[in-house]
Design goal:
Belongs to the ribonuclease N1/T1 family. The chain is α+β, with helices and mostly antiparallel strands. It is built from 2 helices and 7 strands; from the N terminus they run H-E-E-H-E-E-E-E-E. The strands form 2 sheets. Strands 3-4-5-6-7 form a 5-stranded antiparallel beta sheet, with helices on one face. A two-stranded antiparallel ribbon has the order 1-2.
Length: 131
């Protein structure tokens, strides 16, 4: 009887630990663009990569990113312009060219974060703010 209780308890603890493990692997959603979740470190990586291209006068691969963002939607960013847009990828990789996806990190000429915007949920080629 004691062996059965021990095996049952051990099995239950193993199952509980196994079920809890994947939750620990989730990234924190500091920003949400459409259905994409971004941590602050994801945002910093994209921002820093984009800003490095601006400082060097280059672009990622054969793309046009980063480039000046004209803010036609009139977002109220917490930092002063000139603004630049650079893709942030839901895969967690840093953009290096190719398809940019829908989401962008916006920063200014001093490298300060202005915000995140997305084409997801916007009409045409417009952007909406990420949450």
């Amino acid at each position: 009887m004691r062996l059965t209780k021990y095996l049952t308890l051990t099995t239950l603890l193993f199952i509980q630990t196994s079920l809890a493990a994947p939750q620990g692997l989730k990234r924190a959603c500091d920003y949400t663009c459409g259905s994409n979740c971004y941590s602050s470190s994801d945002v910093s990586a994209a921002q820093n990569s984009g800003y490095n291209y601006v400082e060097q006068g280059g672009t990622a691969g054969r793309s046009s990113y980063p480039h000046v963002y004209n803010n036609y939607e009139d977002f109220d960013f917490p930092v002063d312009p000139t603004y630049y847009e650079f893709p942030i990828l839901s895969s967690g990789s840093t953009y290096s060219g190719g398809s940019p996806g829908a989401d962008r990190v916006i920063f200014n000429e001093d490298g300060e974060l202005a915000g995140l915007i997305t084409h997801s949920g916007a009409s045409g080629n417009n952007f909406v703010a990420c949450e």
